[in-house]
Write the structure tokens for this entry.
Amino acid sequence: MRLAFNEDQATFSTVLGQMLGDEVEAGFHTVEGWGRYDYGHALDARLEEAGFFDAAREEDLGTVAAAAMVHDVARVPVVIECAASALLRPFLGDDLPRPLAVVVDDAPGAIRFLPQARALVSITPDAVRLARLDGQAEPVESLYAYPMGVAGQDLDWQPLDADPQTIRTLWQIALAAELGGVLDGGLASVLRYVREREQFGRPIGSFQGVQHRLATDAVWIDGARLLTLRAASTRDPAHAALALAHIQSHATRIGYDLHQFMGAMGLTLEHPLHRWTYRARALRAEMGGAPQAFLDYADTRWGKP
Amino acid sequence: MDFAWSDENDAFRTRVRDFLDRVLPSDWDATARHGPGSREQTEFSLSFCPQLAEAGLLVPHWPAEWGGADRPTWEHFILGEEMWAAGEPRGGQYMNVNWIGPVLMRYGSDAQKQRYLPPMAAGRAIWCQGFSEPGAGSDLASLRTRALRDGDDYVINGQKIWTSYAGLAETCFLLARTGEGRNGIAVFLVPMDTPGIEVRAIPSLIGHGDIHEVFFTDVRVPASCRLGDEGEGWTIISYALANERVGIPRYEMSSRELDAMVAQLKARDGFDNAVIRTRAAEAAAACDAARMLVYRVVDERARGEPPGTAANLARVAVVEADHKVTDFGMDFLPDCYSGTDHAAFQAHHERAIVTGIAAGAAEIQLNLVARRHLDLPKGA
Ligand SMILES: Cc1cc2nc3c(=O)[nH]c(=O)nc-3n(C[C@H](O)[C@H](O)[C@H](O)COP(=O)(O)OP(=O)(O)OC[C@H]3O[C@@H](n4cnc5c(N)ncnc54)[C@H](O)[C@@H]3O)c2cc1C
């Protein structure tokens, strides 16, 4: 039992932190055309060039470093496709393009990252398949803070040599990491606000009614992060389901608190809060949301009904 | 990062479990039902702990000089998990092992160490902790029990409340005031048979004879009963709390009781319903989140890091876990909380409802998380 990063993971995380540092302030602006998300093209290119998306392939970094990266990248107010690239792509074969979009069990509707993606991965109970994209994706207007898109019927699906259960588990870990990260990023931004914003002659963050809710949110987010890292370390399906279920089940309440304590400012497009909370709203419903993840967990721990 | 137990850790856990299987009597659940501070469980601890000591499992993490074997932090913690999950057959003696002993090793005089540590390491010492008072609960530093110096003695007057184990304890680890403010607090090791001490049990929801009022009327003790210096009390309790950062590993019993509840439901064909399955998994998630947050604290300690805010986060999570499990049981197995067939669920319930209050309320932990971990400004 050792809950600290090994030396390589610690270095990886420090360097990543430095690369992400530049992005923290980048979110305080309105995106052209009142867009709801801000794609971090520069960050994406920097991470790709430095080989960060391949961390999971390296023995001393592994899926733990990759999951920690997904979490940390999700904390910044720009969005990039990181979860699938860091946690699925290394296990789907060589020379796969990125960015990737992912669809699970043929879920209907628009798919996150599809407009940017160079390939769509499909995970079903019996197969993992890939369709390379070349202009087939149509962007779709959406409430969510992601580039959302739909693809036509004419995709050229190729089976991949990967175990569907393993990939499903990795995707649960990836989603848990990203959801934990966006909530943590949103929390950090609200904390900055409530420390400074004064009403009734004192910072609103000094009111206990505010403090206890944010402290409770921090306990959930921190617990979820550890559950996610455990799942990334063991890759046990039960651990993965539990990590995702835990953060999905608390995301609704955390998102509510974050908006409440930012007041009207949090409803503007200038303030980046929505770029976290409207990612969280999308992620908390992925793969059937918390109820499905809880049922998945119950099946593994106590047997199927 | 490595979330697996080492072979050595596994072997140690097996050793503890084998010991418990061998030594706990078949009617142990009925004894444990009364609560760790009950007469039944305390008396049981006086035969159980010496056997534990004999097997080298009472104080393995203590230094060899005081009867231990210098075993690592994680083993100490595994021991705690197994004991608590089994219903805490050490009774109140877990306190000696976890923090009273280590505090005496650090702050005690030679005479105090010689007098108190060997009986603790032999499993024959019952202590109580006299901190809380009617006017000083969460705000412990406002305590009023006073120790007045009189020649070579101190004379103690005041009242303690909620004191666990006091009915049977031989010695009280007592906080009393020798001056004003936080720096005016001292620790006294007071024999409970000293004239002037009166103990009254408080009937409660949490087991027979668990909590008490303790009255001190002109209690005269020699100055050699003082632990450390006058005014050093707050530093000593801070050290004690650092040794006991996360307290009891409560999520372990909760997690096992949850499995027992699910087994009970299955036996009645009552575990196919998706809502019930979801609620069970939700409780399991709370237990595992608490477990991970607690393990982080143990890990920090094992690596020799100073105490930070991780323990405050962990304790909030443990409260949620305990409550989610007992709420699950009461919602879906309501009949198990009457009668004598399900003593373990009832015992778990009584331990769980205490979690957010004893040893510092959950809300106090949230205050500390807000101020120290989230760096939020102090209130008015
Ligand atoms: C089973 C059990 C065993 C115990 N054993 C011992 C023992 O052996 N020795 C001993 O000394 N003590 C013992 N205690 C006492 C325990 O330490 C106190 O109950 C605890 O510190 C809380 O104090 P209180 O009960 O006076 O609650 P109060 O201080 O009166 O607080 C009541 C509630 O108010 C809220 N509250 C208080 N202050 C704040 C604040 N600043 N911000 C927000 N909310 C606040 C909390 O919700 C708290 O639960 C035991 C308690 C229990 C339940």
Notes: Residues B 128-132, 137-138, 162-164, 206, 210-211, 354, 357-361, 363-364, 367 surround flavin-adenine dinucleotide (CB under 6 Å). The domain at 245-373 of chain B is CATH 1.20.140.10 (Butyryl-CoA Dehydrogenase, subunit A; domain 3). Chain B has three domains: 7-125, 129-231, 245-373.
